[in-house]
Amino acid sequence: MPIKVPWLKGVFPALVTPFVKKTEEIDEEAYRRLIQFCLPHVDGVVTSGTTGEFPYLTREEQRRLVEIGVEEANGKPVVAGCGASSTQEALTLVRDAREAGASAALIVTPYFLHPSDKGVFQHYYDIATQVDLPIILYNIPQVMDAYLPRTVVEDLADLPTVIGLKDSSGNLTYTMELLEYAGERIDIFVGHDEVVLPALAGGVSGFILASAQVYPEVWQAVIRLVSEGNITQARLLQRQVQKLSRIFCRYGGGVAVKAALKMMGLDMGPPRRPLKAVGGALIHETQAEIRLELEKLGKIPVEETEFAYPTGPLAERFGDLEITPAIVAEHGMRVGSGVAGQGLDQVQIDLVAGGKDSPLGDAYALQLTYPLHGREALTTILEPALTVRPATLLLPTLPQKNLRQANMIYGPTQSAVARAIVDALETGFIPPSAVEDEVMIALATVHPRALNRHALYQAVYSAATQAIAQAFAG
Question: Radius of gyration of the chain from Cα atoms?
Fold first, then answer.
């Protein structure tokens, strides 16, 4: 029976491959900086894997990455990605990796022309028996369009040079099956950043992750907490990085990781063509999400955003609607304001209500006909196609600079204001006569960097409830 190697445990980053922007040559100095950055928090490194864009690397480049990895790893293991569709090419890469000093080779399931299960077994068998270097099997059906069959893994696990398997499927059922049938003979590693905690709880030996070069200390802490039996705290840590982990898994792997590293001061250059950083898999709104998550983790300084919540006399806050304090008084309009939430989730709602035949009714129609650029007003709806009464417009006080900001205003904010109106009608704060006779406009001030949709909804609901109560208190 194969004996598990002692070093194949813990956290291994699937390193990106840095490229010089104009020439697309490998940036060796940047690669060294990246390894030095990761090394204190990891148990080994992985070169030229999926995150490292291995299909776009030459044989010579892949070997050079292993050489640099060995030079910089300070004795920690270096796993060489040796992905290739053909057995012959994979054998060549594995031999190169061995000569360059790699501790093991990561071998992906043959792709493009899909062999039979027997052919897959033979592919790994030939490599495992013809080169004296430990190998790690690699299952990543998202890009290979096929799973590494469990029955094949079960047979390969008896070979002395097969020491592990990286499962990037994210399919915990498959992972648990591997642990059941092969986990006593080889180490199973998880390669899907979103399922680290449940996979670890299930018995995997460690992780090979794209995110492990961004926040490896988080994954080390998760391992420690699980070993101590502190699942509650481990769960909290997983959730803290869950959004970034999801982005890394679903938006191009290396493309998203390179964007995050650049924000952290580690510029790894662009991806190699035909991949694109901006305007490709990674849209501007997703980059904004990455920045905000890195700030929350303390990985980069908080980007200062200059803005202020409206202050001064309440009746003076509706100037954009051409509603002055004199007009408010003359037409008996109702005004109210509410503030709720903390930090980025703090919200202010300033509300004005009045008759349909008053200047407020005209302002209501004008905002629908000639909306303010970047601050387009929308009717307040409880759910699609279900508007509330009194008819109410939601108008952001700040320009919406990207889709993420707009989604926060025209999503949880819009829905929470609507719910506050409906509940105010049910409790009698809003009189029944106002349903048909009046209109309302709610000015919503939401922090430009607000990110937590649930917290924002709760804050908006509370602030809108306060504003309605004040406006209709008589």
Answer: 29
Q: Is residue 391 within 8 Å of residue 440, measured between CB atoms?
A: yes
Q: Catalytic: which of 76, 124, 166, 251?
A: 166
For residue 326, the tally of other CB atoms under 10 A from its CB is 9
- Which residues pair with residue 378 across a beta bridge? 394
The residues with which 167 forms a beta bridge, in sequence order, are 139, 190
Whether 445 contacts 337, CB under 8 Å:
no
Which amino acid is residue 126, in one-letter code?
D
Cα 59 from Cα 367, distance rounded (Å): 62
Residues contacting 64, CB < 8 A, separation 6+: 26, 28
CA atoms within 13 A on the CB side of 338: 23
Q: What is the pLDDT of residues 227-273, one digit of tens each?
A: 999 999 999 999 999 999 999 998 866 899 999 999 999 999 999 98
Q: Is 9 a catalytic residue?
A: no
Give how far Cα 290 sits from Cα of 275, 362, 405, 451, Å: 19, 42, 14, 11
pLDDT at 281: 64
- The full length of the chain comes to 474
Tell me the pairing of strands 438-446 and 386-387. unpaired
Q: Cα(61)–Cα(73) distance, rounded to whole angstroms? A: 18
CB 156 within 8 A of CB 124: yes
Q: Catalytic: 410?
A: no
Residues in Cβ contact with 333 at an 8 Å cutoff, skipping those fewer than 6 apart: 323, 327, 352, 353, 354, 358, 360
Write the DSSP string, 139-199.
E-HHHHSS---HHHHHHHTTSTTEEEEEE-S--HHHHHHHHHHHTTTSEEEE--GGGHHHH
pTM across the whole model: 0.77
Q: Which domains does the chain show, CATH number per domain?
A: 10-296 (3.20.20.70), 314-471 (3.30.230.60)
